[in-house]
Amino acid sequence: MTGPHPEPGPGPEPGSGLVVGIGARRGVTAGAVRALLDRVAAEHGLDLAGAVVATLETKLDEPGLRDAVTGSTLLGLPAEVLAGVTVPHPNDRAERAVGTPSVAEAAALHAAGRSAGDGAVVTLVVPKTAGDGVTVAVASYRRHRRNGP
Fold first, then answer.
1. What ranges do the domains of the chain cover?
2. How far is 7 from 34, CA to CA, in rounded Å?
3. What is the pLDDT of residues 56-66, one digit of tens each?
4. Which residues does UniProt call coiled coil (predicted)?
C-alpha cells in the first residue's frame, strides 16, 4: 500500500500474515481508503504494507480502491462466498445492497483462511471500522508448525 505509514508494529512472524478486508461505496476516493487504512494501522499498531487486500468482486473496478492499495495483492470474492462467513457484526443494509451481511469482516476472514490453508488459526484482529464511504477490517492468520523431520 502506498502513502505515509505510521510507526508500524512488528511485522508478521514466519508462517503468519495479515489480510485487510475492505467494503466501499461506489465512487470512494483513494484518499478516503488510505486515510482509514492509516488510521487503523496507527490505532492498532499494525504494519499493513505487505497485507493481502480482499473485497467484494464487484468492487474490483473501483479506481479509488485500486489506487489506494497499489502494490498489494487485491482479491475479489463473490457475495455468495462472503455471505457464508460468520462475522461478529453483520449488517442487514449491506445484505440488501450487495447480497452479503458483511464485506470487510467476511472478506478479511475468508481470505486469511484461504491464504493460510487448512488447520491455520485465523483471528479477526480489527473489527469493521468505518470511514468516509469505506469500511475496513483486519484478520491475521498463523499456520501450524509441523513437528518432526
1. 16-142
2. 15
3. 999 999 999 99
4. none
Q: Residue 87 has which C-alpha cell?
A: 462475522
71, amino acid identity: G
Nine cell digits for residue 80:
455468495
The kind and range of the H/E element at 53 are strand 52-56
Alpha carbons 27 and 64: distance in angstroms, whole number: 7
Distance in angstroms (rounded) separating the CA atoms of residues 22 and 135? 6
Options 3.30.420.180, 1.10.3720.10, 1.20.120.340, 1.10.940.10; which CATH number does 16-142 get? 3.30.420.180
This prediction has a pTM of 0.86
74 in Cβ contact with 1 (< 8 Å)? no
